């Protein structure tokens, strides 16, 4: 199970390969948030999201001869790119199983990171069976997106950096808002802060209708979403909290925060105008919670992780036109 | 005159107030550039450009009783915001003299940083006379945008960081491309690298028709631009190189690089898609030179400073629509 020593070991293995993302702030956003607001821009991470940290951690933790046979992952988005680049930098092969209707740009990007992309038809083919067959035939190791201790350890390196950066800013009490899908980033950051900055408390942020973690934290047991899709926050839409991540998050996190799609878009535009970073809608929900749920947050400082920036330019330009002035 | 000890002293005075901006990279951009490309995103700096460094350096270098009377600057853009925030953080007043036809958002932003904005009519009023009158009446100190040794020293802190970051990446020979208007950032970075990373050579990057520094470096004497305006790279459009900055740049810089407005826009869009940063056209000319003037650059690595990100959302959305796919 992931603990602080695994997170610190993941950081050692990462070395300087991950960007040590700065803490950004803006007097304008402080005013909107009603307190000092610090943004951790993981959109600036290699491959455009924090997922590179977990991908590298998991691939680098494999025994050399296992790793040499290659890895496989299921993902249509950020995890695909994180695993593909981690494999490429290790000089091993990777297979990424993606739905055939995934955006062409994501397929192209994953291939450009050196992965072999295997497409499947979501209506007629069984992804898991296809992946299991490939893995068995080639001896590939499956890298899961969040319910995997070494992936959680890699995402936890974000928390180690936040602990150091908050200390440098003189902050020892604050909520740390984390965009939450399966809960791997949330759990990793929570574990790191428990050990290194116990006055900082993680709170997951989710889009409306996909607030499974918020509801699960409230009830104390895993709750599923009834909605199947339709959120623009595609990067963090999951069916339910992870079996490994949820117990960690239940023990360590404060109540979840939930924002609307429009609030996520407004936060995305404010990150553009005020912080000069490109955030995707799903990566902006924590910032949206800091800005638009201020009454649900306590204290004179708050940290929000902007988890990814792989956004469609047309969607982005449309949001600028709607909310940019 | 600015030297390395002044730059190091400016860094001491800045402390942790400036963002230590990371070095970003992307395998896609490496391929376009034909070599390893590292981007120093000063658009992520406080106030959205490197100008905060020089503003802070100059304000903090004043004697306390002189500083207490306040400062004044002429600027419609990034220097205005840099000086205004530096003054606010020192608890002193600032007056920024801006043309009355400056974009309302820039006027609003400068006021929001605590400055008193004095508007003048460019057709009927003499800006310098107006400023001199205000300065004399109130005992304000003028902070020039580039031809001022302490401003150059502040901008030089970008060079100190590049020297450290290049060393960490194992780079000891490279061209460092710097967006160049009056030449303050160029001169500061060149002085810092001369002392700390002598294998790194600064080369100024400019937009077509405003390539006064490139032509001046070629001829060895100060050359003026004949064009008066019309570039979208407004942040770095000047009439001629500075009287203090040019001798420094003549001694230390390699040949200038010149890009078209369209290349600057394409670089801005590539910074969006590949690095997840928001860069203004004038702040993207160095990146454009790295991507589109690869035959004029030698070596297996290049560094480009993206100097600012204060871009109009409508212009940005339009560029995404034109070049984003």
Written account of the structure:
2 copies of one chain form a homodimer. Chain A is α/β, with parallel strands linked by helices. Chain A folds into 2 domains: 4-50 and 148-323, Rossmann fold (3-Layer(aba) Sandwich), CATH 3.40.50.1100; 52-142, Rossmann fold, CATH 3.40.50.1100. Chain A is 46% helix and 14% strand. In chain A, α5 links the parallel β2 (71-74) and β3. At the A-B interface, α12 and α14 of A face α12 and α14 of B.
Name the shape of chain A in a single word.
Answer: globular
What would the CATH topology of the largest domain in chain A be?
A: Rossmann fold
- Report the β-strand fraction of chain A as a percent range: 5-15%
Largest sheet of chain A: 5 strands, parallel
Q: Averaging pLDDT over every residue of chain A, what do you get?
A: 95
Distance between the termini of chain A: 47 Å
Radius of gyration of chain A: 18 Å
**Class of the largest domain in chain A, according to the CATH hierarchy?**
Alpha Beta
Helix content of chain A: 40-55%
- Main β-sheet, spatial strand arrangement of chain A: 1-9-6-7-8
Structural class of chain A: alpha/beta
How many domain units of chain A? 2
Uncertain residue segments of chain A: none
Note the quaternary state here.
homodimer
SSE ordering of chain A: HHEHHEHEHEHEHEHEHHEHHEH
Q: Quickly count the helices of chain A.
A: 14
């Amino acid at each position: 199970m992931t603990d602080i020593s695994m997170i610190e070991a993941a950081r050692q293995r990462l070395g300087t390969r991950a960007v040590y993302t700065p803490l950004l702030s803006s007097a304008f956003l402080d005013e909107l948030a009603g307190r000092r607001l610090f943004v951790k821009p993981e959109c600036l991470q290699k491959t455009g999201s924090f997922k590179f940290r977990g991908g590298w951690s998991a691939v680098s933790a494999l025994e050399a001869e296992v790793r040499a046979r290659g890895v496989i992952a299921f993902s249509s988005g950020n995890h695909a790119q994180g695993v593909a680049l981690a494999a490429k930098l290790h000089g091993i092969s990777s297979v990424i199983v993606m739905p055939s209707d995934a955006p062409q740009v994501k397929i192209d990007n994953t291939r450009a990171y050196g992965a072999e992309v295997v497409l499947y038809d979501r209506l007629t083919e069984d992804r898991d069976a296809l992946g299991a067959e490939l893995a068995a035939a080639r001896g590939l190791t499956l890298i899961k997106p969040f319910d995997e201790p070494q992936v959680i350890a890699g995402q936890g390196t974000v928390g180690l950096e936040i602990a150091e950066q908050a200390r440098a800013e003189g902050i020892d009490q604050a909520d740390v808002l984390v965009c939450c899908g399966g809960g791997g980033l949330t759990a990793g950051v929570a574990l790191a802060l428990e050990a290194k900055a116990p006055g900082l408390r993680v709170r997951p942020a989710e889009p409306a209708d996909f607030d499974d973690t918020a509801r699960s934290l409230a009830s104390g047991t895993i709750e599923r979403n009834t909605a199947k899709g339709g959120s623009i926050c595609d990067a963090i839409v999951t069916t339910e909290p992870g079996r490994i991540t949820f117990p960690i998050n239940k023990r360590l996190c404060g109540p979840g925060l939930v924002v609307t799609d429009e609030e996520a878009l407004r936060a995305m535009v404010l990150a553009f105008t005020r912080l000069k970073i490109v955030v995707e809608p799903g990566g902006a929900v924590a910032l949206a919670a800091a800005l638009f749920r201020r009454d649900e947050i306590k204290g004179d400082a708050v940290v929000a992780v902007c988890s990814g920036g792989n956004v469609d330019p047309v969607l982005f330009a449309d949001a600028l036109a709607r909310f940019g002035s």
